[in-house]
Design a protein that fits this description.
The chain has 344 residues and is an alpha/beta fold. The protein has a single domain, classed as Aldolase class I (TIM Barrel). The chain is built from 14 helices and twelve strands. It has an eight-stranded parallel β-barrel with strand order 4-5-6-7-8-9-10-11, surrounded by six helices. The longest helix is centred in the last third of the chain and has 22 residues. The protein is globular and about 60 Å long. It starts with a helix and ends with a strand. Its main location: cytoplasm. It is an enzyme of class 5 (isomerase). Involved in the biosynthesis of isoprenoids. Catalyzes the 1,3-allylic rearrangement of the homoallylic substrate isopentenyl (IPP) to its allylic isomer, dimethylallyl diphosphate (DMAPP).
Length: 344
């Protein structure tokens, strides 16, 4: 097993077996509450939670966020996730495909298109790899491997700082991202990994041609804690512990980015755990919502657990629409039904 494969296996094991969630920082969505409509004047059965994202029709505003790949166990999880994504017509991202570039034999652990021919599917590479001999060729390879609809470039400076021998040269990446946005045949999505994207940084990414933003804010899995668990020396373990709660809450990222970029396709992720939080994120301005940890837990258990998870997420989102008097997600966004609670 290569060093990258070992790291992938460690990430999967740690996320499943250890408490690597943020200690104190939340996703911020608890600061918001919907106005209840006691008489919604709707038929629950006619509520429509379908949506379009990057010109693709989705059955619900849900993304199975990027998680894994590169090992046999990861491949099994990706295939289970893809089957459920296809069934409910929701989007899916895979984990970083750097391991498949280094070792093409593990590409099959990512290649889920045959199982999910109709879904919105995202390839994934670390943006920092553009400073480590990656370019258009490698991006095309991971896009082709998945037959992907878009490429996620994930941004993870804190994780690379805590990771033993992490890649920490982030200089000049905006210019290189601009080149990819011009040359690649699919849209580029910029995504953090759990520490958030500010409005100012989102504007810079949009200015160089990024087609969508996934805020991946604070409040869920802390990759500083994950890397701290993996660390082999005391300094890296301490770094991970010190920065375990670093980042901007997801709600803050969504609200501030939408304020400066009204039309950018926007994904809310980072600590979302249910359909109520999904609906809050959409009412704040997100187009769809991504979750990783809940899907990983369910996928590791069984296909039945995955189906049960998606069913309840759909029921929760639908219930929010019904109990706020909104027939569609667009209606919810424009309803003003979400209130920010006063700080106590």
């Amino acid at each position: 097993m290569t060093e990258t494969q070992t790291r992938k296996a460690d990430h999967l094991r740690i996320c499943l077996d250890r408490n690597v969630q943020f200690n104190e920082v939340t996703n911020g969505l608890e600061r918001y509450r919907f106005i209840h409509a006691c008489l919604p004047e709707l038929n629950y059965d006619e509520i429509d939670i379908s949506t379009n994202f990057l010109q693709k029709k989705m059955g619900a505003p849900l993304l199975i966020s990027s998680m894994t790949g590169g090992t046999e166990e990861a491949g099994k999880i990706n295939y289970r996730l893809a089957e459920v994504a296809q069934y409910y017509k929701i989007a899916m991202g895979v984990g970083s495909q750097r391991v498949a570039v280094e070792n093409p034999q593990v590409g099959k652990t990512f290649a889920v298109r045959s199982i999910a021919p109709d879904i919105l599917l995202f390839a994934n590479l670390g943006a920092v790899q553009l400073n480590y001999k990656y370019g258009v060729e490698q991006c095309l390879r991971v896009i082709d491997l998945l037959e992907a609809n878009a490429l996620i470039l994930h941004l993870n400076p804190l994780q690379e700082c805590v990771q033993t021998k992490g890649d920490t040269n982030f200089r000049g990446l905006l210019e290189k991202i601009a080149i990819l946005c011009k040359k690649l045949p699919v849209p580029v999505i910029a995504k953090e990994v759990g520490n958030g994207i500010s409005a100012a940084m989102a504007q810079k990414l949009i200015d160089v041609g990024v087609a969508a933003i996934d805020v991946a804010g604070a409040g869920g899995t802390s990759w500083a804690k994950v890397e701290s668990e993996r660390a082999t020396d005391a300094q890296q373990r301490r770094l991970g512990a010190t920065f375990a709660d670093w980042g901007m809450p997801t709600a803050e990222c969504v609200e501030t980015i939408r304020a400066i970029a009204p039309n950018i396709p926007l994904i809310a992720s980072g600590g979302l755990r249910n359909g109520l939080e999904t609906a809050k994120a959409i009412a704040l301005g997100a187009d769809i919502a991504g979750m990783a940890w809940p899907f990983l837990q369910a996928a590791a258990e069984s296909e039945e657990a995955l189906h049960a998870l998606v069913k309840v997420l759909i029921a929760e989102i639908t219930t929010v629409l019904f109990c706020t008097g909104n027939a569609t997600l667009s209606d919810l966004k424009n309803s003003g039904a979400l209130q920010k609670l006063p700080i106590s």
